[in-house]
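Page header: ASSEMBLY MODEL / two components / 858 residues total.
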Amino acid sequence: MSRVLAREMGRHAGTEVTLQGWVHNIRKIGAVAFLVLRDRSGQAQVVLEGDMLAALPTLESVVAVSGWVKPDARAPGGAELRARQLSVISPAHRLPPFELNRPELTAGPEVVLDHRVLGLRHPKLHATLTVQSELIRGFREFLRGEGFTEVHTPKIVATGTEGGSELFPVQYFEQQAYLAQSPQFYKQMLVGAGYERVYEVGAVYRAEQHNTSRHLNEYVSLDVEMGFISGEEEIMALEERMLAQMFAGVAETCEAELALHGAKVPEVRDVPRVPLAEAQAILERRFGKLLPPGDLDPESERLLCQYVAESGRPGLVFITRWPRFVRPMYAQPTADAPELTASFDLLMNGLEVTTGGQRMHDPTVLEASIRSRGLDPEGFAFYLEVFWHGMPPHGGFAIGAERLTARLLGLGNVREASAFPRDRTRLVP
Amino acid sequence: MSRVLAREMGRHAGTEVTLQGWVHNIRKIGAVAFLVLRDRSGQAQVVLEGDMLAALPTLESVVAVSGWVKPDARAPGGAELRARQLSVISPAHRLPPFELNRPELTAGPEVVLDHRVLGLRHPKLHATLTVQSELIRGFREFLRGEGFTEVHTPKIVATGTEGGSELFPVQYFEQQAYLAQSPQFYKQMLVGAGYERVYEVGAVYRAEQHNTSRHLNEYVSLDVEMGFISGEEEIMALEERMLAQMFAGVAETCEAELALHGAKVPEVRDVPRVPLAEAQAILERRFGKLLPPGDLDPESERLLCQYVAESGRPGLVFITRWPRFVRPMYAQPTADAPELTASFDLLMNGLEVTTGGQRMHDPTVLEASIRSRGLDPEGFAFYLEVFWHGMPPHGGFAIGAERLTARLLGLGNVREASAFPRDRTRLVP
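Prediction written out in full:
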């Protein structure tokens, strides 16, 4: 008898089926026991009677149960399995370090991360990575529809994107190398290689010393770069349409997962574009908050999203026109104010989830910008070459996949959105 | 006037359009010049006359050309653009180091890699990464249809999958870490975390000293792992169906790219399963080649594919039943011969492109196997934990994306299938 998934059991009412999965819960009530079986699709209620009660499996054991599917309005999915045969495929030899069959996992966050694999069996934690997987699928699907090519760029690099800080060193045979902080140079280079529109889903590495709820030292970056643009507005408009489609996709395919988190996907439309100077003025006027030029701190990001949300909009806002001195050397100046850049951050529900903008494409201008940072263009020769050979105007953005997932689901810590987070001290599991 | 792609120009006959792209070629013939414009979609012929001949753009400059689309059977795509206006968006300041507008790139392989970005402008090289992108898309699409979840596992790890050799060391703050050789442990752990079926497209790292045409030190691994299997045959059958769908997808969407390489996608059906001992017997009988137990060298892989192809089949063969001593410690022994494993390699057109098999799921057996290799299970505690808490029978495989692409397109060197290859000495571009 071939296997049926828990979610599909209701469709097989009146027939005999086999379920396979983990023992999520068992309650013995008199002469029957109710076993909740959990598989990748969800949960099913199984009724055990007679001999089967003599040796009930331990919680979290992997079992196969065959029996008749009986409609029952009280059971999840509107049906239960009357077991005829139960066999243990792989027993759980030990008790889990926390209770997986309660609505919330109540152990402390470090305990949950120490036992990350078992924690991911909890339906709510499990749902997080499912949602992330669907978000990333939506990302790719949208971009492919727009003529983008998926690329894979090296994570072992000879030099940092920004010139050297916060890099993890790698011993590459006899050479000193680093882990890539970003595919920034490579995605630009591939635009110039004639792909014009590229995206990458890949790991990036930041050797940041601080351990906060918003930082990971290794995370998944959703990177986009696009040539032949007229300006940064085209990039923001693309991201807006993209997020709208990604969120709509998740709303459609992850209804149960969103419900477990009590999350609703925001409608992404007409996201306000607020120049940084204006954002700072709002913070001062409305919240009495004074900031140094070019700066937005975490509290400001929260307040600005709150400000936008007060007008009944989703908590999404593009902060534009950042000064050059807080942006990387490749950021394109705005046409009307050369001390500002044609760049943006996207804040979502209180946190920056995207940085993007137009990049310089004139090699002379770019080299001058590199020099103005006290860097030597020679060190960037591999990046600069394509600019001397015909580089279209271009720009792009990057989204932190874990941050986006965390903001969408209202998670308190970005680690919860990473399968196996790497932070200041954590290398295992 | 909004931009039209070169490939689409024929559809706009009789109207005025704008093309944007790179100057692929210019030939001046009397009072006219024929400019071939190249964009991400392909090439278009542009006819320049009058004043426009006074200052022709340099090769590889980025230009915009507006004009009327005139049907012309002699032009590629059946139409040419009669230019009314030509403007240089971004000039090429230097001559490319090789000729991009010949059917083949004739420079030496190291020169081409030194100038990789410019090389990728050549239509044939360009096509390689387009095909790879479509192969990977097919991989994901097939697996999602089979209920698999995409995952992202860490590439900074505390320990190697196989116990320590060929690892790149990373300085992770105060700790010694390594780059992951494979997501093997993590994908198994995520099967046990209840996802049951997972896949990952991610970088893996091998600090192999040898520089051959078949090795990359950083490459893209297409990893699959699946729980609740009955044996390794189920995994091979899955891979067979998967490759068939991936190749069919590429045949459909990459017709022009395949044609540039003179490549035809093989039909994947009824791929022979040949036990290693039998494969060695064939090599001895048919080719007079003697090999040590458990070994297949590169020449043997070529000969075995040739042997299969001689019977009119595509050059694909699963080599099964590898001895335990040449497989990792987690490889599941076969039911009938405990010194052999339920594992396989897939050879394609002369090269191993996949390793896979069933894994041990009993924690006692797995720990004993780890000890039998002289390793301490304590060092694998983060991996082993889930096995004590109910681990289903499972197995999977990994495909090297660059190798698969290279085999499909008949490339002589796997580097050609990597956007920015990392080999024994190459860290740039």
